[in-house]
Design goal:
By secondary structure, the chain is mainly α. This is DUF2933 domain-containing protein.
Length: 60
């Protein structure tokens, strides 16, 4: 019984560290939603630039 407890105690640290690493890596993955939002931001910036140039032409 005591050897089983020692085995569990010895394996607890590496298993816990592996689990934490896996959870941290899982949180850093970029999903398709994030790629889509970045594309939308780029489109909106292009639209803002277009509107600025149209306003500058109209002010002349």
């Amino acid at each position: 019984m005591q050897s089983v407890l020692w085995g569990v105690a010895v394996l607890a640290c590496p298993v816990g560290m592996g689990l934490m690493m896996w959870l941290m890596m899982r949180g850093q993955r970029k999903g398709p939603e994030e790629d889509a939002s970045q594309e939308q931001v780029a489109q909106l910036r292009a639209e803002v630039e277009q509107l600025k140039s149209e306003r500058a032409k109209g002010a002349r």
